[in-house]
Amino acid sequence: MTYNQLWHLIVPPYDESEAKAVMRTVLEVVFGFTLADLYSGKVNELSSDEEAVLREIVGRLQKSEPVQYVLGQADFCGRTFKVRPGVLIPRPETAELCEWITARHTHSGHLRIIDIGTGSGCIAVTLALHLPQAEVKGWDISTEALSVARENNERLKAGVRFLKRDILAPGLSDKADKGTERIDVIVSNPPYICMKERDKMERNVLEYEPETALFVPDDDPLRFYRAIAEYGKTALKPGGELYFEINPLYARELETLLEEQGYNNIEVRKDQFGKQRMMKGTRP
Predict the structure, then answer these.
(1) Closest of 268, 162, 193, 281 to residue 231, by C-alpha
(2) In this structure, what are the phi and psi dihedrals at residue 151, rounded to the nearest 5 degrees?
(3) Which is nearest to 202 in space by CA: 189, 190, 192, 193?
(4) Following DSSP, what letter does each residue of 119-177 receive, concatenated?
């Protein structure tokens, strides 16, 4: 079977351009084929065992399973991160959040950073590698996510410390108030999609990615932001910063929430698609 025939097998669920890119990625990652190999017909030289592997992969893709889960990896900020079901797939918008923090703190001295809701660890690991002067911790409530994050941390030698923590747990801010260490940066890409938005989402997200990492109740879309901002009031140093990935639908409400919590120098940035996607606030 040729490359051209293969990508046609996954249309739908993918459109033509996506199908070509997905199949090219599969053939490169799994079998080591270059683009020249694909167009020269090397796919026809696969062994029977390799063909069986390819048929299984195609079957999973036809069911809309994300290619990142099929391959067990995702690219993020120029590195390859391990992912599997139960862990949110890293996205380009989140990479832009990392780039913002890195650009602002490249020349800072020693930093203490916490990534809340770390998932695969992509934010925490990236910041630790881009800001070697930083001491980075990653929090999550999911044992499975922490396992993946630690695997990525070890493989990429980032030196992040991962902890099982629940930002919604009562008394977390009180504990921070009693601590002697203050944090320079808190960053989070928390769940921020309301349940009422489900109908507009793709099948590959709804059926495969973890709901706990995606959704919040319709009546409380800022639940996690409120808890993190409350924690930051005691955990952050004066002048310390909060960085969030945000839902564009609630950007104004979140800005108001941070103002009411006493944060200043609030800044909203758009992502590469022109949507309000990132927000920063500073503790006075």
Answers:
(1) 281
(2) -65, -45
(3) 193
(4) TTSHHHHHHHHH-TTEEEEEEES-HHHHHHHHHHHHHHT---EEEE--TTSTTHHHHHH
Q: Which of 191, 189, 280, 192 is CA-nearest to residue 236?
A: 280
The whole-angstrom separation of Cα 162 and Cα 158 is 11
Give residue-wise pLDDT tens across range 108-136: 999 999 999 999 999 999 999 999 999 99
Query: pTM of the prediction?
Result: 0.93
10 Å CB burial of residue 49 (0-12, 13-18, 19+) is: exposed
Amino acid identity for residue 34 in this structure: T
Task: Identify the DSSP state of 42.
Answer: G
Residues comprising the chain, all counted: 284
Predicted confidence at residue 14, as pLDDT, reads 93
Q: Which of 99, 127, 255, 251 is nearest to 183 (CA)?
A: 127
Within 13 A of 246's CA, how many CA atoms are on the CB side?
Answer: 29
**Residue 188: in which H helix or E strand, if any?**
strand 183-188
Nearest in space to 227 (alpha carbons), one of 173, 265, 149, 157: 173
**Token duo for residue 217:** 């109740």
Distances (CA, A) of 155 to 45, 73, 133, 147, 158: 33, 13, 20, 12, 8
